[in-house]
Design brief:
The structure holds two protein chains of two kinds. Chain A is mainly α. Chain A is built from 13 helices and two strands. Chain A has one domain. Chain A has a two-stranded antiparallel ribbon with strand order 1-2. The two termini of chain A are 33 Å apart. By secondary structure, chain B is α/β, with parallel strands linked by helices. Chain B has helices at residues 21-30, 63-70, 93-96, 115-125, 130-144, 159-171, 189-206, 217-223, 241-248, 289-299, 312-322; strands at 2-17, 33-48, 52-56, 78-83, 99-103, 177-181, 209-213, 226-231, 234-240, 251-258, 271-276, 279-285, 302-309, 330-331. Chain B is built from eleven helices and 14 strands. Classes of the chains: A mainly alpha, B alpha/beta. The interface between A and B is medium-sized, with 24 and 32 residues.
Chain lengths: 264, 332
């Protein structure tokens, strides 16, 4: 376990190297809040409530869900895996006495931990500066459930991106898969709009898939809603994580023999 | 004790042939012609514990492919191989903890952090006890004199400094086998010499078995007693280095710069490479070198003179042609 903790620490340290980058990324978290202000301000107009959301609840949802979405850096890991398989530098993971999935999980958590610390600080600052009437639940069990769902969701996303990444053993270039996945996920996770705005039938179908529980449900829980979906969310995410763990294990075993370690 | 053993090891690569031009690219969308090539063919190799073996051959001979199979990075197409009693491509952690591989053009260091940060990660990955880690690190820092840039961002290091760090990263867990693929490529003469003396000491001091590929004859000559020559994926010579050079390195390259315009023609059977009034470069039979030098020194005012070993490619070519193109290996 210590090797994975050290990997996370190293990637955390790696994020701290370029100070200007840190400052800019913190400052620019404000752009998301401004965008939400303009977008939802226009939609709300003179209305006090839209599809059950007040303006401040909608804004809070947006801030929280975009924060959770940003925590998920697994897409970069997926790109990194497929690029390194293509250029032959993936060999350095194969020869190390550690799980490759474990390594990339630790790497992603290291980067996410950095974002938790710095972007949370920045987001809190902007909420204070703009005097946003921030809606946030005080129910500890809802907060705990949301944190567990976020953790399981991040784990699932790492596994999904790892899976697409290792498909490069077979297809060499997986950029099309990655692009399709990134576009679909932005919509399915509710990062663009709250999923309650969608027709009930579509929401029911989406609830079978893990994406509903990754950003949307934790965000709703943190603004004090959807408490009844916690158990289903946790069970489903554990199930999807288990399924993808098995899928990744066998896919890696089946495809690794195709790796030639060639490239620049 | 045999530490590495391969029997009839073969690796076949499949590639697609693409016709040139735009039309060829469109055509390639629908129909592709497959080409198969044996990068390594029926390769038998035994290496004893503690040996320092040089693997030489021209580009594309199959040296790196062999290294990759021995380290488990790629799987063989057929044949068998075992290293330290393990089958490398089964990727067992117990085996991975006992070897290391350094590829001259690939890095395992984190570029934005210091080498010391990567070493700390490796300590945990290989489960090295604190005391052993400190002892090994201090040993290598002292050996390589790298204490000044241990805590410097890797991307700012020179190529020679980075390669030293790569070697420390590869050796920090005291591997029993070290695979080195062109470790001195691109380094200047001073750095090459330092790396060589370092490797020599690791081999003799720690008993690490080392398999080295290099294009620099000096690397092979100063480090390896045994040498395996590979050409077109097959082994064509396996034996003592001294014998290889006695038998096949028949030429040396002599380059002379003159103080003033000189029209010197060597009175021996030599092959001229470059000739102008101020410089003469030629290949000469090894046995004649002493007499040629005597002749030059007595007849010309020289500014500089250098004698270089013959290129690896020429030696391989000569072994191959002497054997009439046969891929049968000469075991000595």
């Amino acid at each position: 376990m210590r090797k994975y903790i050290e990997t996370s620490k190293l990637l955390f340290k790696n994020q701290l190297v370029y100070r200007f980058d840190i400052i800019i990324s913190m400052v620019f978290t404000v752009s998301k809040i401004l965008l939400a202000f303009v977008l939802w301000g226009t939609i709300f107009g003179n209305q006090k409530v839209v599809v059950g959301f007040t303006f401040s609840a909608m804004l809070s949802y947006y801030v929280i869900s975009s924060f959770i979405t940003q925590l998920d850096q697994s897409s970069n890991a997926g790109w990194q895996i497929s690029t390194e398989i293509k250029n032959g530098s993936f060999s350095k993971y194969i020869i190390k006495p550690m799980s490759i999935l474990g390594y990339f999980t630790a790497q992603t958590f290291g980067i996410s931990a950095f974002l938790v610390v710095f972007n949370l600080l920045a987001a809190s600052l902007w909420v204070l500066v703009f005097r946003i009437d921030f809606t946030f639940t005080s129910n500890l069990s809802l907060i705990a459930a949301a944190l567990l769902l976020i953790l399981l969701g991040l784990l699932f996303m790492i596994q999904l991106n790892y899976y697409i990444g290792i498909l490069a053993f077979r297809f060499v270039d997986t950029s099309v898969f990655m692009m399709i996945k990134d576009n679909i996920i932005q919509f399915l996770t509710g990062a663009l709009i709250p999923l309650t705005l969608l027709p009930a039938g579509i929401i029911k179908v989406m609830m079978v898939f893990p994406f509903y529980y990754i950003s949307y449900l934790p965000s709703m829980l943190l603004i004090g809603r959807n408490g009844g979906e916690i158990v289903l969310g946790i069970v489903l995410l554990i199930g999807w994580n288990g399924a993808f763990w098995i899928l990744n294990h066998f896919t890696f075993k089946k495809l690794i023999y195709k790796y030639e370690g060639v490239g620049m | 004790m045999k530490i590495i053993q391969t029997k009839q090891l073969t690796k076949t690569y499949t590639r697609f042939k693409k016709e040139e031009g735009f039309k060829g690219s469109i055509k390639g969308l629908f129909k592709r012609e497959k080409i198969t090539k044996d990068a390594v063919h029926d390769f038998d190799l035994d290496i004893e514990a503690g040996e320092f073996v040089g693997l030489i051959g021209p580009n594309g001979a199959g040296k790196t492919t062999l290294m990759k199979m021995l380290s488990g990075i790629i799987s063989p197409t057929s044949g068998s191989l075992s290293a330290l009693g393990y089958i490398p491509n089964e990727l067992k952690n117990e085996y991975k903890k006992q070897f290391s591989i350094v590829m001259g053009q690939k890095s395992q260091l984190f570029q934005d952090l210091s080498a010391a940060d990567t070493f700390l990660l490796l300590k945990e990955i290989y489960g090295i006890p604190e005391e052993e880690y400190r002892r090994n690190l201090n040993y290598f820092i002292e050996l390589f004199k790298v204490s000044d840039y241990l805590n410097v961002q890797v991307r700012t290091l020179s190529l020679g400094e980075r390669m030293k760090m790569e070697l420390i990263a590869a050796l920090i867990h005291s591997p029993k086998i070290l695979f080195l693929d062109e470790p001195t490529i691109g380094l200047d003469a001073v750095a090459q010499k330092q790396i060589r003396s370092f490797l020599k000491e690791v081999n003799s001091d720690k008993g690490t078995t080392i398999l080295l590929t290099s294009h620099y004859m000096d690397d092979i000559k100063s480090l390896c007693k045994r040498c395996v020559v590979v050409n077109n994926g097959t082994k064509i010579y396996d034996g003592g280095l001294a014998l290889l050079f006695d038998k096949y390195q028949t030429q040396k390259q002599i380059t002379v710069s003159f103080e003033k315009e000189t029209a010197y023609i060597p009175p021996f059977a030599v092959q001229i490479i470059e000739s102008n009034p101020f410089k003469l470069s030629f290949m000469a039979p090894r046995g004649d070198v002493r007499d040629i030098l005597g002749s030059i020194l007595s007849q010309c005012e020289i500014n500089d003179i250098s004698i270089l070993e013959e290129d690896i490619g020429n030696i391989v070519e000569r072994i191959y042609s002497i054997k009439g193109g046969s891929s049968e290996c000469e075991n000595i």
